[in-house]
Design a protein that fits this description.
alpha/beta, 14 strands, Rossmann fold, binds S-adenosylmethionine
């Protein structure tokens, strides 16, 4: 019969050896305990004899007499201090304030700062690319759940000067990575260097990776992946940790898209820049997958932008679910307007887009206030809701085709003129806001539109234009040329005295 390796005489010998080793180990550790107790007794006796704590010299004498261990070196003391600081950091966060950075799309910083001022009591500072602020864990949770304009939420881990790699590594390794990341989270480092002695981003990322691994301990990790960002500018290093994971604009409701979908944060920036009063109707005649309609409806109802998703920080050691849920409930109570019933109307000539918009609206919990019609711009009934006379008028907020695939710019121009014709039917005072690529083509709409912000969508420069119907120079304005022709007989009360955009021809964009 085949025997197991341990059953062989060799195996028995091994077993014996292991037992001896184990005994030795136990003895050693016991002996250490006895020696240290013995040393403590001798120290106590010496102190009792001298009547005071043993000073450096006396201590050395006593140690040489008693054979006690030498005093702690400077390095030991430093290491102890660092350990204490780490523990303090662990204890103070999430109650103590830390430095946070909320990133945004370029050009959206001022709108984001206004949004954050409603969400936190802490001071904010808009800088290029986002907003800086201090905050505790509750602030962090409120921003994650309540910000519709931020793209990422970063925890600033530390800022220091470094002109040499050794300094970069030493100072990075001192930061409390173990307390913040815990044991199981994986991480990756990205680096950006500008006008600095350390300019090789690859080498910087590599050194920071080593330093972080040293600070929190090596070993196989299987937790979620977090991004650590190292930015060096004029030799000043800033290390930040992305706490959100998936960008904040991924709200979770838009699982169906149509052609050229607009990002959720930019759709909200467009709505907020339009001058729309959320108690009045809003119309998007080129609604695609419905992003503008859904963002507008959720804003009007006071639904939290981040309530339908999870965040990476939920997997980090400091995360406190009880506190998070409390923050969510109190924020929802502050912002929610469950009785609001705005009329949000969309149209698109593409049946697939209409279907996607309807389904996305349901997922976004606004299926009951958003209605979408399958119609081309020239026939869409959605504008009717804006013609009813009220004290404050509803708005047209849209992201018309940019013309990537249109080819002939004149066709695109005719499409904008069609939009202008429909806007020309509206009473004076209706806010109009468009997100476009080409401001010159947008002039065909005939409403004087001002640039509210310049931003970037997927590497393409886009701008948000806004104005009001009937304003000087618009199709409803007194003295504007040819307004009546353009609008035909369906003109509103204000059209009697106003003129049209350049062309009256109603044209669709090519398929
Ligand atoms: C830039 S996309 C809008 C994207 C949308 N904001 C979203 O987030 O999905 C433009 C939309 O205009 C629609 N469109 C193009 N020509 C049209 C026309 N003549 N009438 C109505 N819709 C049209 C396209 O089907 C497309 O969905």
């Amino acid at each position: 019969m085949a025997r197991k390796a341990t059953d062989t005489p060799m195996g028995t010998a091994k077993k014996k050896k292991t037992r001896i080793k184990a005994r030795t180990k136990t003895r050693t550790s016991k002996a250490t305990t006895t020696r240290s107790e013995h040393r403590a007794k001798i120290r106590a006796k010496t102190e009792a004899k001298t009547g005071a704590k043993t000073g450096a010299k006396a201590g050395a004498k006593a140690r040489s007499k008693t054979g006690a261990q030498p005093r702690k070196t400077h390095q030991d003391q430093k290491a102890q201090k660092t350990r204490k600081a780490r523990t303090a950091q662990k204890v103070s966060w999430p109650d103590g304030a830390v430095q946070l950075f909320v990133a945004s799309a370029p050009g959206v910083e001022a709108l984001l700062e206004a949004e954050l001022q409603r969400l936190t009591k802490f001071e904010t500072k808009a800088v290029p690319g986002g907003v800086e602020l201090e905050g505790d864990a509750t602030t962090l949770y409120r921003i994650a759940l309540g910000s519709g304009l931020g793209t990422h939420l970063m925890l600033r881990l530390g800022t220091f000067s470094a002109r040499r790699f050794e300094v970069l590594v030493r100072k990075t390794a001192k930061l409390p990575f173990r307390a913040i990341l815990g044991d199981d989270v994986r991480f990756e480092v990205t680096a950006k260097c500008r006008k600095s002695r350390l300019h090789h981003t690859g080498a910087v990322a590599e050194r920071v990776t080593t330093a972080v691994a040293e600070a929190r301990g090596y070993g196989q990790k299987s937790g979620p992946l977090v991004a650590i960002q190292c930015r060096i500018e004029h030799d000043e290093v800033t290390l930040s940790l992305d706490l959100t994971g998936e960008p904040l604009w991924k709200r979770g409701y838009r699982s169906e898209t149509a052609k050229a979908p607009l990002r959720e944060d930019l759709a909200l920036a467009l709505v907020l820049s339009s001058g729309w009063d959320p108690t009045t109707p809003l119309v998007d005649p080129f609604c695609g997958s419905g992003t503008i309609l859904i963002e507008a409806a959720r804003h009007a109802l006071g639904l939290l932008p981040g309530s339908g998703r999870s965040f990476l920080f939920e997997a980090l050691p400091f995360f406190d679910r009880g506190r998070f849920l409390a923050a969510r409930d109190s924020l929802q109570a502050e912002m929610g307007r469950p009785d609001a019933a705005p009329l949000i109307r969309g149209a698109d000539r593409n049946a697939g887009a209409v279907e996607a918009a309807r389904n996305n609206a349901k997922r976004g919990q606004v299926g009951h206030v958003v209605t979408v019609e399958e119609a081309a711009i020239s026939k869409a009934m959605v504008f009717d809701v804006l013609k009813e006379s009220t004290e404050t008028h509803g708005a047209v907020v849209s992201n018309p085709p940019h013309g990537h695939r249109v080819g002939d710019p004149r066709t695109l121009q005719r499409l904008y003129q069609s939009l202008g014709n429909r806007i020309g039917e509206l009473p004076d005072g209706c806010p109009v806001a468009l997100l476009v690529r080409d401001a010159r083509i947008a002039r065909s709409v005939g409403v004087p539109l001002e640039t509210r912000l310049l931003t970037d969508q997927g590497g393409t420069k886009v701008r948000i234009l806004a104005g009001v119907t009937g304003a000087r120079g618009g199709p409803n304005a007194k003295g504007a040329k040819g307004a009546k022709d353009a609008r035909g007989s369906k003109s509103s009360k204000s059209s009697k005295s106003s003129k049209s955009p350049k062309s009256s021809k109603s044209t669709e964009s090519p398929s």
